[in-house]
Each structure stands twice: as C-alpha cells, then as structure tokens.
Design brief:
- Two copies of one chain form a homodimer.
- By secondary structure, chain A is of the alpha+beta class.
- Chain A folds into two domains: about 1-80 and about 205-210, Glutaredoxin (3-Layer(aba) Sandwich); about 90-200, Glutathione S-transferase Yfyf (Class Pi), Chain A, domain 2 (Up-down Bundle), CATH 1.20.1050.10.
- Chain A has helices at about 10-20, 45, 65-75, 90-105, 110-120, 125-150, 165-180, 185-195, 200-205, and strands at about 1-5, 25-30, 55-60, 60-65.
- A four-stranded mixed beta sheet of chain A has the order 2-1-3-4, with helices on one face.
- In chain A, helix 1 (about 10-20) links the parallel strand 1 and strand 2.
- In chain A, helix 1 packs across helix 7.
- The relative contact order of chain A is 0.15.
- The interface of A and B includes residues 50, 95 and 100 of A.
- Chains A, B: Belongs to the GST superfamily. Zeta family.
- Chains A, B: One of its GO terms (biological process) is L-phenylalanine catabolic process.
- Chains A, B: One of its GO terms (molecular function) is maleylacetoacetate isomerase activity.
- Chains A, B: It comes from Rugamonas rubra.
C-alpha cells in the first residue's frame, strides 16, 4: 500500500493513525502542499486524486480518496483491530463524532481556505487567526458536548479501544494547538487526546515523526 | 422515526431522500434555522443534538446526528433498497463521493459560515457570493472529475441504482442553483441530477415539497 501524505495534513494524519492501529505496513509518498505551488495541484497527483487533496491510498492499484472512506475501507478489508463498534448505533455514534471533525471543523481551517482568506479576500493575518479560533472553538465545543454527555465515552471516544473517531480527534487537536487555541474548555477531548498520545500508533503517526517532516 | 429537519437544509435533504429511497415512514419535526434567532440553537434542540446543527434522527428514542452517519445507520438497520454497493471498493468510492460533498463543498457554503462572513467579518453581499461561487465551483469540479473519469459511474453516481452519493449530489446542486451558479461545466453531475430528479423519492424530498416550505 502507498499513502500519499503530507506530514502536517490533518486528513492524512488520520489515515496514518488508522494504518498504525491496524499494524499495516505502507509506503509514504510525500506530496508537498506548499512547494512548487502545491504539488497536490500537479497533473501527476490529479491522476491519483482528481480532487487535488490529500490523502490518497493506492491499494495494489486501486486508488482511494477521502480519509474517512479510506479508513472504513481498511477496516472492511483488514478486519483485525476493528476501528468501528460491532453494533449499528455504536457505529453511527463513532461516524458522527468523526464527521463532526471532518465536516464541521477541519474544512473551515484547512490550508486552501486560509489561503483564500488572505489572498482573494485580502484579510489580515489577525482576522485569519480570528476565523480559525472561532470555527475550531465552535467545533471543539460540539465534540466536547457530544463526548461529555454520553456514557459510551470511555478512555477513548467510544469505550476503551481507540477507533475511527480518535483517528480524527487527535489530528484536529494537533491543528488547534498549532494555532495556540486554548483547549481548557474541552476537558473530555483533552483527556482522550492524552490517552491516545500515549499509544505507539498515534506517536508514530505524528507529523514530527514523518519522513517529510520539516 | 422522527427527523428534525428544515426544508432548505442541504444535510436534512440528504436524509429525506434516503428515507424515501428506502420507503421508510417518518415524522418531520421542523426546526427553523432563521426564526427565533435560530431554533437549532435553543436548549430544546441542543438536547437532541448538542452540535446545534441539522439534521437529527430519533429512532425509537435513540438520537443520531450527522447526515452521512444517519444514512449509513438506516442502510444497516433497514437493508432493503441498499444505498451502498456490496463490495468494499464500491463502498469506498461512494463514500468518497458523498464526502466530497459533505466535507469539501457544503461546509463552506452553509448558513452559519455565510452569516459569519457578513456579520463578524463585515464582508459585502457581493464578496459573500464570490465566496460561494468559488468554493461550490471548486467542489463541483472535483465531483465532475471523479464521476467523469470512472467507468463505475452509470445513470447514477455508482451504477444504475441511486445511493448515498446521489443523496448528497442532488441537494448540493439545489444549493448551487439557489446561488445562480453556472452548472454547464459539470455535465456528468447534471446528467445524474436529472436522472435523480425524475424519481419520486427525490421529488418528495425536495425543499418545496416539505411541510415547512415557505
């Protein structure tokens, strides 16, 4: 398997965690989001993923995109160390938590959006940071509210085994911390983050541990 | 089953289509996104969905949120008229198409974001529309590129049966048309949209057909 990745891409980071949790070997193919005007925009990468976004997975010639779809595919084709619960309601809960990150937080604070705020909209660095703090804060508050009220929350997002939702939570916290966002208001999120951060699968997926880290 | 919905909510529209495709009866509970300062923000609705976003599903007391998670749950618990393919690669493809809408297009053009552009950022109506045209255009180009290049695309997003990806495509086209976005550059998207629009399940889920339509 080949994973098209960038060390700081939050979505690629999710898939790296999932691959590690399942103990799957893969070759990392770095795609630099800033160099050469953005290597993800080049024809070579568009042939892999026409969305020109990371990550993409090449599984023996089959090309997959979208981090959550990739993780579900890995879970279905390599069922050892499942990343989703066995019951339909549990799966719905874990998917909803993952989608809270992937649909309600990350799309508003990723590189292409922040570049648009400063470029075409001509907003200042200060207003850009205000934007990030606002949307990441809103999203983290949602995640905290879901996790704090539900007895299914355990050491991890769902029970005591890390899964799909944790694969999303940890990179989003990393991203928030890069922007110096105060995480004190999200104690359940941060408790789960600390439990994840202690596991080798999460440590080895961390941006700083990647071959393309700067 | 009770679906918390708003006639023009793109994410609620997805679930209405899925419920109709499966022939499932449900009670629509309207939550008005603009009235009373946004009914989704009230405590009564936050008890249903702490994210204060639509839709939510109440299945005999079990509360579910996030449209894609809800649709997968419906598909798992009511397997008749499946909305996902039987093979893992097909499922990954359909989920990736759905997530292209749900993660890469819709989050940037939904109500809360457009309100923030005009409110806190103080941008003009014109710049707001420029923002919508840019991001919806980028996203539709991604969707078109994925659909046009892949032999799995049929009368619908995946083969000749409507499914999860079509549940996402149609509301996003509706949303784009509300903003007068020129769709001529996305012929595959529009061909599939036309095939969907001919089916009763899609007709009956249309915003104009909802009890809370204005």
């Amino acid at each position: 398997m080949k994973l098209y990745t960038y060390f700081r891409s939050s979505a690629a980071y999710r898939v790296r965690i999932a691959l590690n949790l399942k103990g799957l070997d893969y070759e990392a193919v770095p795609v630099h989001l800033l160099r050469n005007g953005g290597e993800q925009l080049a024809e070579a990468y568009r042939a892999v993923n026409p969305s020109a976004l990371l990550p993409a997975l090449d599984d023996d010639g089959a090309l997959l995109s979208q981090s959550l779809a990739i993780i579900e595919y890995l879970d279905e084709t390599r069922p050892l160390a499942p990343l989703l619960p066995a019951d339909a309601l549990g799966r719905a809960r874990v998917r909803a938590l993952a989608q809270t990150v992937a649909c309600d937080i990350h799309p508003l604070a990723n590189l292409r959006v922040l570049k648009y705020l400063k470029g075409p909209l001509g907003l200042s660095e200060e207003v850009k940071l205000q934007w990030v703090v606002h949307w990441v804060g809103e999203g983290m508050a949602m995640l905290e509210a879901h996790l704090a009220r539900d007895p299914h929350t355990g050491r991890f997002c769902h029970g005591d085994t890390p899964g799909l939702a944790d694969c999303c939570l940890v990179p989003q916290v990393f991203n928030a911390q890069r922007f110096d966002i105060d995480m004190a208001a999200y104690p359940t999120v941060m408790r789960i983050h600390a439990n994840c951060a202690a596991l080798p699968a999460f440590v080895q997926a961390h941006p700083a541990q990647q071959p393309d880290a700067e």
